[in-house]
Amino acid sequence: MKDPGEYFIEGNIACAEGALRAGCGFYAGYPITPASEVMNHLSKELPKAGGRFVQMEDEIASIASIIGASWTGLKSMTATSGPGFSLMQENLGYAVMTETPCVIVNVQRAGPSTGQATKPGTGDVMQARFGSQGDYEIIAFSPNSAQEMFDFTIRAFNLSEKYRIPTVLLADAGVGHMREKVEIRDEVETVDRRRPEDDEKEFFDTDREDHVPPMPDFGGGEELLVTGSTHLGDGTRDTSSFEAQDRLVRRLVSKIEDNRTEIEDWEEENVEDADLVVISYGSISRPARGAVKKARENGLNVGFFRPKVMWPSPEKRLRDIGENSEVLLAELSLRGYRMEVERAVPSENLHIYDRLNSLPTIDQIYDRIKEVVE
């Protein structure tokens, strides 16, 4: 673990340092480009901090291991890229159903399949939200700098613990391998999962306003049943009752929907009364912001909007923007966030700048802005 201070490091190392500051006690993973540096760094530093590191045989075993470790009381994490993230989807749904806090880092690359392993892409955004089966919600972040790789990893752990839910850091190769100044802070806010009070015996149901039940540890003395099947508040399987399925799934969804105001996060500049608002995220949002700045310097009334939390999406704010301005979505994918923006923005107001496998220049996005405005 690095001493507090400023360092010139890449985003993947900043992510690993953020995990250490957040209290990560267990990491299981399998090497994959462009995410391997997260694993490599934690393999050396996590044991020094009293944690456990295990290299697994594949990504399925990796996410299964961090789920198990979480139920022993450890904050746990894994990191991968698109192909590995695909393999994790079944167990991601299991973590949602069992309300298991854990962090999955996906340093996205150009796909599909093996694609171009060293090139950035953001084609996994919808997979993070809808990749597993059934009705559920998820929390997913989109950093655009090495500093945010540090900061958002900490917040991913905190929200995972607070809401008993797996969280996803949707980075990309551009951010993961970007080297820039990062402030490593020793004093960071951390959150731990809520433990059962003496009178609490149900660990999978609650009438609390935040919808989050307490979480004990295996081996802690509680009578504890954990299953991915539909279950009652005490963990007992109930795979035939309408009432059990309805109450459980509605609560799992409400746990995120009813707490949106705390989870949602975005930044915006000059959005009000803009003729055009550029929406972007991840590493491409950096030249996109530069293009917006150049447009304003040349007298164009252009604003900028960047979601920091992709899921739950800032759908109400997107809808407000789309009703009052033209919108240009700039992303490293043909359909990464496009369907979500299309859902919120009227089709006649929506324009697209999509690019595959490499970051555009400021001038390239600026030229597209001029086309739309003119």
Annotate the secondary structure layout.
Blueprint: E1 5-10, H1 11-22, E2 24-29, H2 36-48, E3 52-55, H3 59-70, E4 75-80, H4 82-87, H5 89-97, E5 102-110, E6 116-120, H6 125-130, E7 139-141, H7 146-163, E8 166-172, H8 173-176, E9 179-184, H9 242-257, H10 260-263, E10 266-269, E11 276-280, H11 285-297, E12 302-307, E13 309-311, H12 315-324, E14 326-331, H13 338-344, E15 350-354, H14 362-373
Parallel strand pairs: 2-3, 2-4, 4-5, 5-8, 7-8, 11-12, 11-14, 14-15
Antiparallel strand pairs: 1-9, 5-6, 7-13, 10-12
Helix pairs in contact: 1-2, 1-7, 11-14, 12-13
Q: Can you offer a commentary on this structure?
A:
This protein has 2 domains: 5-184, Thiamin diphosphate (ThDP)-binding fold, Pyr/PP domains (Rossmann fold, 3-Layer(aba) Sandwich); 265-373, 3-Layer(aba) Sandwich (Rossmann fold), CATH 3.40.50.920. It contains 14 helices and 15 strands. It has helices at 11-22, 36-48, 59-70, 82-87, 89-97, 125-130, 146-163, 173-176, 242-257, 260-263, 285-297, 315-324, 338-344, 362-373; strands at residues 5-10, 24-29, 52-55, 75-80, 102-110, 116-120, 139-141, 166-172, 179-184, 266-269, 276-280, 302-307, 309-311, 326-331, 350-354. The strands form 3 sheets. Strands 2, 3, 4, 5, 6, 7, 8 and 13 form an 8-stranded mixed beta sheet that branches. The protein has a 5-stranded mixed beta sheet with strand order 10-12-11-14-15, with helices on both faces. α11 (285-297) packs across α14.
